[in-house]
């Protein structure tokens, strides 16, 4: 497993991160979730990503249980704050000072840890002064409850404004966590150049486009039983935008490219995002331990320029590139 630096910081993380969105605490049983975490550790993954909103805190609890026997100093643990949690009261959401301070305490309690390595703003909060948000994060760092601060799905202007305030407050934003895949490239035009300029890396989620780039969804055929496309608890909604028949047809054109590299389609998808030098790590989840063992084979893969071009040609105009699609809710979700 290869390591990369997170932004301009001195923190090294594994270039594949185990993430537990849509799995721990909701889709799979706790024993299976813990087995997946153990498989990640066995594969050399030391970086783990979660969020307070995942299964309303249950995902953090399961991850903490799975990691409690490990040496804490040998792990890099990420979590996030913004979306509604708990009883979802008026202040149980957003990036106010109140919610950030209560959010970090709740996350640490559920994880069973004294600190997280990276604490992330899960979206931009248009209803809280950015100065208030950044000062609260600065205080979280000074209290030793988080070592580094990052954001998620912030656009280029928000990154610039946030980094300027952060540095005035005595710390730096080190990362942004956006959706990014060969099918969803909205960060390339504006966010990646801004982040590179500001000393921030991308911690990318959904490198397999919700599983579509694994090639398991075939045009004209029903989705496999038990797959994300059949999950009525959220997976079905999240994958819907990629389930267009033309998209599914184009994905199948990637098979000979993957074969030329000795990879499965899922491994090709993960390796593809890692070719971007601004990407520090790709978030990959699993519902079975064997999936973890397969995914880590994408680490260290170099895709030659001619095959990167072939991927572009195969996918053609089904790729989404509009930078305006990096958005956060105008109002805090209830």
Structure characteristics:
10 strands, 334 residues, eight-stranded parallel beta barrel, TIM Barrel, alpha/beta, two-stranded antiparallel sheet
Major sheet: 8 strands, parallel, barrel
- What is the top-level CATH class? Alpha Beta
Element string (H = helix, E = strand) = EEEHEHEHEHEHEHEHHHHEHH
Our Rg estimate from Cα atoms comes to 19 Å
Per DSSP E runs of 2 or more residues, the count of β-strands stands at: 10
Gap between N and C termini: 40 Å
* Backbone shape: globular
Structural class: alpha/beta
Number of domains: 1
Number of helices: 12
In round numbers, the mean pLDDT is 94
Name given to the CATH architecture: Alpha-Beta Barrel
| Low-pLDDT residue intervals, each spanning 5 or more residues | none
Strand content: 5-15%
Query: Could you estimate the helical fraction of the residues in percent?
Result: 25-40%
If you consult CATH, what is the topology? TIM Barrel
The CATH superfamily bears the name NADP-dependent oxidoreductase domain
Widest β-sheet, arrangement of strands: 3-4-5-6-7-8-9-10
